Amino acid sequence: MDTLLQFANLVLHIDKFLGVFIQQYGAWVYAVLFLIVFCETGLVVLPFLPGDSLLFIGGAFAASHEMSLGALLVLLIVAAVTGNTVNYLIGRAIGPKVFNTRIPVLERFLDRAALQKTHDFYERHGGKTIVLARFIPVVRTFAPFVAGVSQMSMQRFQLFNIAGALFWVLLLVLLGFFFGNIPFIRQYLNVIVLVGIGAAIVPVLIGGLWKMTRKNTNGGTVRGPNGNRN
């Protein structure tokens, strides 16, 4: 419990943490930001890292000349692209082996038809998913993994991976650069971060609940011999 509280406090006061880190360790802050963005996008076990707020706050520090804007943009874009690529390759390597297993316990839970549907979905809409997922915490961690599991082609994945990374990093870092040091925004940065996370996650949760409700409703509908609902 204490660990969760400490992590929540870190996320809510990430600007203070970065400020202290820059004062004490200087240029090492670039390595820390690179690792956090890389791990959040590259490792499915770390979807909780604060990527969005780090990008915005990094831009704010660049505006106050405590960091280099050019170096920050280049490093974060590379971290975002390589992180997604590693995540995709892990999914591509693990996915088929897991779904082709003949272990009785896993056979009961794995759905090969669902995997094929996922593959077909990514071939049709995977590009938009990879780009838009960049702006949704947690989802951006799992999207490249699922793309790999569904065997989305590497060329198509990389096209939208790079486009999404450029859009995500440039937008959030430059927003932080131009607006992050405005007194009102700086004062209520924690609230803004929470609102931003909520605005990204809530629609996804509502959409998921709506689909589950529809599925349960349709599943509970009784149909007659002629296929009509009773």
UniProtKB/TrEMBL annotation:
<dbReference type="GO" id="GO:0005886">
    <property type="term" value="C:plasma membrane"/>
</dbReference>
<comment type="similarity">
    <text>Belongs to the DedA family.</text>
</comment>
<feature type="domain" description="VTT">
    <location>
        <begin position="49"/>
        <end position="176"/>
    </location>
</feature>
<feature type="transmembrane region" description="Helical">
    <location>
        <begin position="159"/>
        <end position="182"/>
    </location>
</feature>
<keyword id="KW-1003">Cell membrane</keyword>
<dbReference type="InterPro" id="IPR032816">
    <property type="entry name" value="VTT_dom"/>
</dbReference>
<feature type="transmembrane region" description="Helical">
    <location>
        <begin position="69"/>
        <end position="90"/>
    </location>
</feature>
<protein>
    <recommendedName>
        <fullName>VTT domain-containing protein</fullName>
    </recommendedName>
</protein>
<dbReference type="Pfam" id="PF09335">
    <property type="entry name" value="VTT_dom"/>
</dbReference>
<feature type="transmembrane region" description="Helical">
    <location>
        <begin position="188"/>
        <end position="210"/>
    </location>
</feature>
<feature type="transmembrane region" description="Helical">
    <location>
        <begin position="27"/>
        <end position="49"/>
    </location>
</feature>
<keyword id="KW-0472">Membrane</keyword>
<keyword id="KW-0812">Transmembrane</keyword>
<keyword id="KW-1133">Transmembrane helix</keyword>
<dbReference type="InterPro" id="IPR032818">
    <property type="entry name" value="DedA-like"/>
</dbReference>
